[in-house]
Amino acid sequence: MTIDIRPLRENDLPEADRIFRLAFGTFLGLPDPTTFAAGADLIGTRWRAPASNATFGAFDGETLVGSNYAASWGSFGFFGPLTVRPDFWSKGIAQRLLEPTMDVFARWGVRQSGLFTFPQSPKHLALYQKFDFWPQRLTALMAKPAAAAGKAEGAFDGSRAELLAQARAVTDTVFAGLDVSGEINAVLDQSLGEVVTVRDRDSLAAFAVCHVGPRSEAGPNAVYVKFAAARDDRQFGALLAACEALAVRRGMGVVTAGVNTACHDAYRTMAAQGYRTQFTGVAMQRGNGAGYLGPGAYVLGDWR
Q1: Could you tell me which of 213, 273, 189 has the C-alpha nearest to residue 237?
Q2: The CATH homologous superfamily of the domain defined by 3-110
Q3: CA-to-CA separations, 126 to 9, 120, 198, 284, in angstroms, rounded
Q4: Domain boundaries, the chain
Q5: pTM over 0.85
Q6: What pLDDT does 156 receive?
Q7: CB count, 10 Å around CB of 214?
């Protein structure tokens, strides 16, 4: 077996998607592993946003057997989903995929990087520790049935350039250089959903990058908050209500979002608003650094 690591091509995407579902579904013990994340697209959406993502495929000859995806959020980077075809597990392929991932983080000049994985899996933890990623606090993947929740916030009144600049001003207060412009552009360019905003007088106080429905990362009948940030608890609460209003307006039944429990105030606010944990993972960060996760950080994003 000779494994070659190279960028994915467009014609690799269907098999990369199949392996992604098969690998996670097999690990989680689903009766039909290929039904994992049915209706959601976590692979093609990232491949189609090359300005802020890098994709790597592991090939045995011309046969794709695994893949990994790295995302640039300015001064922060994360990777995943990293998946390998089950009949190629325990052959060192995941480690081979991580080597160019670390190289791309170095090329991007990120100050901190992380990942989301299974806290109950010694194998996963040991693999990532080889690359100096260390387990920290749990990440709760939470959900709330969507119901009419008052007046929805209006759409952002300005150009995309203004939206990106004001969003950067919000994220920069959370972690210097944090920038999710790539996520905003991906949602708008690929029609994956909407960017929900909350204003405080003339400035942006909070925003959420939301995927909506099938063929996005949300999947059927859901709004998925890929990333959100707010300046304070009041604005964060208003942002959660605005995301729920988006779901109602778009005919979606549930809002889903990931929050790291290190962001204690955000986690408590979500629980108080009726969000309930559906699944837990663990955040691992390189060098065991804190990054932007902390008690007073009103930030959503699970790094899947």
Answers
A1: 273
A2: Gcn5-related N-acetyltransferase (GNAT) (3.40.630.30)
A3: 30, 12, 41, 11
A4: 3-110, 142-300
A5: yes
A6: 81
A7: 13
The identity of residue 6, as a single letter, is R
Helical ranges in the chain per DSSP H:
13-27, 44-47, 93-108, 122-129, 160-174, 181-189, 233-249, 264-272
- Among all chains, which residue has been given the structure tokens 């429990």? 261
Kindly report, residue by residue over 97-111, the tens digit of the pLDDT. Answer: 999 999 999 999 999
As assigned by CATH, the class of the 142-300 domain is alpha beta
58-82: pLDDT as tens digits = 999 999 999 999 999 999 999 999 9
Check pLDDT > 90 for residue 260: yes
Tell me whether residue 287 is exposed, middle or buried, using C-beta atoms within 10 angstroms of its C-beta: 0 to 12, 13 to 18, 19 or more.
Answer: exposed
Q: Would you call 190 exposed, middle or buried from its count of C-beta atoms within 10 A (0-12, 13-18, 19+)? A: middle
Sign of the CA dihedral with 120 first, then 124, 127, and 128 last: negative
pLDDT of residue 150: 57
Place of tokens 């990333």: 227
